[in-house]
Structure formats: C-alpha cells, structure tokens
Amino acid sequence: MAERLANSEANRKRIQYIEQCFGNSGEPLLVPGRVLVGEGVLTKLCRKKPKPRQFFLLNDVLVYGNVVINKKKYNRQKILHLENVRIQSHHDIGELKNGWQIFSPSKSFVVFAATATEKTEWMAHINKCVQDLLTKSGKTPSLETCPVWIPDSEANACMICNTPFTILNRRHHCRKCGKVVCDDCSKQRWSFPQQAKQPQRVCDNCFKELESSTHAANSMSRVPQNDSDDSDDSDEDDELPPSNDDEAQFYDGRRN
Predict the structure, then answer these.
(1) Longest dimension (CA), the chain
(2) Terminal Cα distance for the chain, rounded
(3) SS3 letters across 191-217
(4) 170-228 pLDDT, tens per residue?
C-alpha cells in the first residue's frame, strides 16, 4: 500500500499542502518514498491544560503542530522519527477519553482521540508504520525515551520537598522523570542530546541517580549549572481551536 501511494500524485499533493500550511515555520516534508498515512486533530495533554493539535502520520515520521486556522495554517511544527517511537494505551482522565501515550527519545506525551474507533485506528496505523520501518531497516528501537511531563494541575506542591507552589515558588519539570518540582529541588543540569542542545533541568533525586550510574555516565555528561529554558514545551500558546466535526482520515484504501 505504501509503495503504491508513494508514487501517486494525490499523495504528493497532500504532503505539499501540509508544507504549505506550516509555511516557513516547518521543515520540508516531501521526500522520495514518503507517504501520508493519515491525519487528524488530537487533544494533547500539555503542561497547563489539554489542547487540540493537528497530527500527520507519515510512513516514517509523526508530525504535529498548533492549529492557527483550521485546515489552512499551522505553526510550531514538531517531528518524531517513528523508528524510535513506541505507544501505549492510557487511562481516561475525567472527560478526556480514548487516550494513549507516545514515547520517543526527544519528546513524550499523552493524546486523546474523539472516539474509541479513532484511537484504535491511530494506534494500529502508528504501530504498523513503526514495525514496517524496523523490519525494513533491521534496526533495534531506542530504549531511551523522554519522560511524559506531569501536568501542572496535578501538583500543588513540589513532588520532592512538598513545599507549596506560589507566585514566587514556581513549578518546574525534571527532564529525567517528568515530575513537577520547585527551583530549590532542581538546580542541577544534565545533558540530554536527544531532547535539546542545551543542558536541561533535573531534580535532585534524578541527578543523584544519573551521577552514580555508570551507564548514564557513558551516554550523558554532567555540565555546570547554567540557565536553561524551562518553557521548552513550546506548544503551550493559545490558538484558534479546530471545528468539532473534524474526523481523522487514513489513506489506506478504506477512506479517502
């Protein structure tokens, strides 16, 4: 199916239109052999609150971004390479249902589909793309994944010292475990090349584990304390929400 779609004019136009919607804020997506498998709006569990995001599943990457104008303009493009992605079903959170976790070395998070059917389709197509890539390349998927951040709303106090958060005592996230911690409990920095170029904030507990781990010392390195960007969950900006009648679409011969 992928081979047939890769050479089709319809597939080329679909991918070109995605590039056009992202404009200068996105990377080129039209490359030889690449196929748009499916697309749709999913609710992403962001740091402050759940927000709609436009997702595009291609046969080798998962692309998503903020919705500026529905079906016309997106920004803050993110790309996850599927050969290092794994997914896992997630429990319902209040009114948020039909969710699953997406894990990768650079970013991990939870998304929710509008229906159980869409969740099943998304997960099945993602798993198939991942398996096809690994079978074709013979590679072993990376075991190192970025943690899923615990939402701010789930922590009224530091998850290490229990000091309540206030206007002055701000929330921060450990890049190793994803916990919400205060500044006093997360002054150390560690290099995670897959996540970011700059050294990242880690909590005291994780810093001790990293420092004492011989394996971690071989793949990561301690760096001096310095200021790093704690707002790297850059898809937090508000934008126009998509229409409620959006439905995920998969180009596998069943729905076009």
Answers:
(1) 58
(2) 13
(3) CCCCCCCCCEEECHHHHHHHHHCHHHH
(4) 999 999 999 999 999 999 998 887 787 888 899 999 999 888 874 544 544 444 444 44
